Amino acid sequence: MKLHTSLLLTTLLLDTTLAQKWPNPEPCTGECRIHDPALARSENGTYYLFGSAPGVTVKTAPSLNGPWSEPKKVFNTEDQLGAPDIMHVNGKWWLYYQRTKISTQESNISVASSPSLSSPFVDHGLLDIPPGNEQRDYNRIDANLFYDSNGRDLYLNFGSFWDDIFQLRLSDPKTVISDSFSHLEKNKTEPGFPGESSTGANPSEGAFEFKWNGKYYLFWSSGNCCHTTKTVPLGDEYKIMVCRSDKATGPFVDKAGKNCVSENGGTMILGTHDNVYAPGGQGVRYDDELKSVILYYHWLRFDNQEEPATFGWNYLGWDGEGWPFVTEKGDGTKDKGKGEKKV
Ligand SMILES: *[C@@H]1O[C@H](CO)[C@@H](O)[C@H](O)[C@H]1NC(C)=O
Ligand SMILES: *[C@@H]1O[C@H](CO)[C@@H](O)[C@H](O)[C@H]1NC(C)=O
Ligand SMILES: *[C@@H]1O[C@H](CO)[C@@H](O)[C@H](O)[C@H]1NC(C)=O
């Protein structure tokens, strides 16, 4: 995700119509601080949580509620590596991560792999994604690997700000098929934030694609990840959006039927509420322990927005039309779709 360094002076507008009844994050114990969580579960039931940090960090816990261990570095470097994504494909774990220069399009995505979550990751270096251009104006950040069991295709979702979220097909987890682009999402609101038009106008990033019950869901984070209500008007901070498609490549539409590239489509499923500020950096998984789909993310405390972000998760229920919503408990939805497949 990108941090914005400009200092903004804006009026804090409290909009009570934004108030929503979302449940609080489920309890978390141990070392819960994290930014851009990426979650996986090993064969023996241990949860692994990767996060943005120098070298990318990983911590473990016996349950989703913790207790989370102290973080360890995945790569022995002081380089700031961000927005990890972890997925099991072709008998290995694949870890994607980025290097990014704030407020520029000079970013890149690398991949590493390991036969097991507890063994060292071997770095394979940069993915060969062409840099953004006028035609496809993106920033190479926030990778998300998606395996479509239907057709056995692999996709890399990424981006972005500028023209937001794009997708490339892969021939294997290390190799993108150049010119297999799909444009998944674009927020056409300009500019994104006061004073920030120079960094690309459209605050959409952190894509995460998930298949459930035969449909494809694109989750992403909209808004500003990393400021506070001192500088970002309430409502413009991070929030979690969803769109849906019949195909992995789109077109995606929101709950109101609006196209998510051409019509600013996007349905908010979680935003600021109670003491939760700016939830985002999310992922979704079918959790075989809880027998439910869950949404996980990082969030800040409304009453102390400068504290590091915390790991949070909630159950996702599915309404009669097949749209996900954040809910108190698993709604008993059975394993219809197996969104995350180990392949
Ligand atoms: C990857 O991105 C970082 C951050 O912008 C940059 O410093 C580095 O030179 C890039 N690496 C390559 C090989 O482009
Ligand atoms: C699972 O495996 C990891 C890595 O080998 C180990 O640290 C952990 O203690 C194991 N957990 C259980 C419940 O066996
Ligand atoms: C698009 O951006 C505007 C301005 O930041 C925001 O109010 C709106 O919620 C965003 N829409 C989507 C679908 O993300």
UniProtKB/TrEMBL annotation:
<comment type="pathway">
    <text>Glycan metabolism; L-arabinan degradation.</text>
</comment>
<protein>
    <recommendedName>
        <fullName>Arabinan endo-1,5-alpha-L-arabinosidase</fullName>
        <ecNumber>3.2.1.99</ecNumber>
    </recommendedName>
</protein>
<keyword id="KW-0326">Glycosidase</keyword>
<dbReference type="InterPro" id="IPR023296">
    <property type="entry name" value="Glyco_hydro_beta-prop_sf"/>
</dbReference>
<dbReference type="Pfam" id="PF04616">
    <property type="entry name" value="Glyco_hydro_43"/>
</dbReference>
<keyword id="KW-0732">Signal</keyword>
<feature type="signal peptide">
    <location>
        <begin position="1"/>
        <end position="19"/>
    </location>
</feature>
<feature type="active site" description="Proton acceptor">
    <location>
        <position position="36"/>
    </location>
</feature>
<keyword id="KW-0378">Hydrolase</keyword>
<dbReference type="InterPro" id="IPR050727">
    <property type="entry name" value="GH43_arabinanases"/>
</dbReference>
<dbReference type="InterPro" id="IPR016840">
    <property type="entry name" value="Glyco_hydro_43_endo_a_Ara-ase"/>
</dbReference>
<comment type="similarity">
    <text>Belongs to the glycosyl hydrolase 43 family.</text>
</comment>
<feature type="site" description="Important for catalytic activity, responsible for pKa modulation of the active site Glu and correct orientation of both the proton donor and substrate">
    <location>
        <position position="142"/>
    </location>
</feature>
<dbReference type="GO" id="GO:0031222">
    <property type="term" value="P:arabinan catabolic process"/>
</dbReference>
<dbReference type="InterPro" id="IPR006710">
    <property type="entry name" value="Glyco_hydro_43"/>
</dbReference>
<feature type="active site" description="Proton donor">
    <location>
        <position position="205"/>
    </location>
</feature>
<dbReference type="GO" id="GO:0046558">
    <property type="term" value="F:arabinan endo-1,5-alpha-L-arabinosidase activity"/>
</dbReference>
